[in-house]
Design goal:
The chain is of the alpha/beta class. The chain has nine helices and 13 strands. It folds into two domains: 192 residues, DHBP synthase, CATH 3.90.870.10; 74 residues, no CATH class. A hairpin with a 6-residue loop joins strand 8 and strand 9. Helix 1 crosses helix 5.
Length: 300
């Protein structure tokens, strides 16, 4: 794929939607405050929500970090490129708007050939949140991005469907003990195999430490119930094991389920039902990220 146009637009400070292995991102030059500003405007995202900065290598990550602790190095070596974001103390090159004024920056090297090639072609890191309007479902195809934000971006790079389907795990390694801020497809257990037991998240007040932790997030428009729906109205089920008439059957493994989740919720939204009811996923470690997203989607 020829990425020279996308790279040129990014160099000029424009927004370009890009595929990653998790979800599509709304990208801008992370070192250009005016370009990053456009991301917040296009998404309607509060300025208190810091962005993820995408890099093409551990070297680029280190050049943006004021401090690169052993836990960051170990996790990056084990899981990059891949769906893991590391929060570290930032250098001044990262403008404050990208981090919502926080002294830390979230860094991730995506495992998508197009995203990596584009960062390389640009020569600078790309700030990119998920390419959806604030609180809505993250896009897993280029078509989703065009529908929701098509008129607000200079270009949408089509890389097909995102294989992982839910957002990266976010781990802060900026404090004494690594903390999981947002679960992802790389399970807590696999992260702990590398850095030992993860600490508990403690809110420090001030700027929003992790907007992915907003209770309501990742929501379809139709009210979603985890478990039994209300008795009234007409609805549709998303099930795994217990078949329901007219419902949609989901894969029985967590990985397959995550890959289909957002796309399926979008499809269900289009049916204009009164509710979506979801058969609760198993209470097992590998389902933590799917449970997290569904719990947030069920918040009202
Ligand atoms: O998979 C992904 O992570 C996707 C793709 C595009 O890479 N991006 C994504 O970005 O989901 P976004 O903006 O929707 O989520 C950013 C997450 C939030 O949970 C936010 O709290 C956390 O990263 N985050 C960013 N900077 C942070 C910081 N300095 N400290 C703590 N958390 C931070
Ligand atoms: Mg998001």
């Amino acid at each position: 794929m020829d990425l020279s146009l996308a790279a040129m637009l990014l160099r000029r400070g424009e927004l370009v939607a890009i595929p990653t292995e998790t979800v599509y991102g709304l990208a801008a030059n992370a070192l250009d405050a005016a370009a990053v500003e456009k991301i917040f405007a296009a998404k309607g995202r509060p300025r208190t929500s810091p962005l993820i900065v995408h890099v093409d290598s551990i070297g680029m990550a280190r050049s943006l970090a004021a401090d690169w602790p052993p836990a960051a190095e170990a996790l990056a070596r084990r899981f990059w490129p891949g769906p893991l974001t590391l929060v570290v103390r930032k250098r001044a090159a990262i403008p404050d708007i990208a981090t919502a004024g926080l002294p830390t920056v979230a860094l991730r090297m995506p495992a998508h050939p197009i995203a990596l090639e584009l960062i390389r072609a640009c020569g600078f890191p790309l700030a990119a949140p998920s390419a959806n309007p604030f609180t809505e479902l993250s896009p897993t195809t280029a078509e989703h991005v065009r529908q929701a934000l098509g008129d607000r971006v200079a270009m949408v790079v089509d890389g097909g469907a995102c294989p992982v389907g839910i957002e990266s795990a976010v781990v802060s390694v900026a404090g004494a003990t690594p903390v999981l801020l947002r679960p992802g497809s790389i399970s807590r257990e696999r992260i702990e195999e590398v850095v030992g037991p993860l600490g508990e998240f403690v809110s420090t007040g001030g700027a929003d430490p992790s907007p992915g932790m907003h209770r309501r997030h990742y929501s379809p428009r139709t009210p979603l119930y985890l478990g039994d729906p209300p008795p009234e109205g007409r609805g549709v089920w998303l099930y795994r094991e217990r078949a329901r008439e007219g419902g949609i059957r989901m894969p029985s493994d967590a990985e397959g389920y995550a890959a289909r989740l957002y796309e399926t919720l979008r499809e269900l939204d289009l049916r204009g039902a009164d509710w979506i009811a979801v058969e609760p996923p198993p209470d097992e470690p590998e389902w933590e990220a799917v449970r997290d997203r569904l719990t947030r989607a069920a918040e009202r």
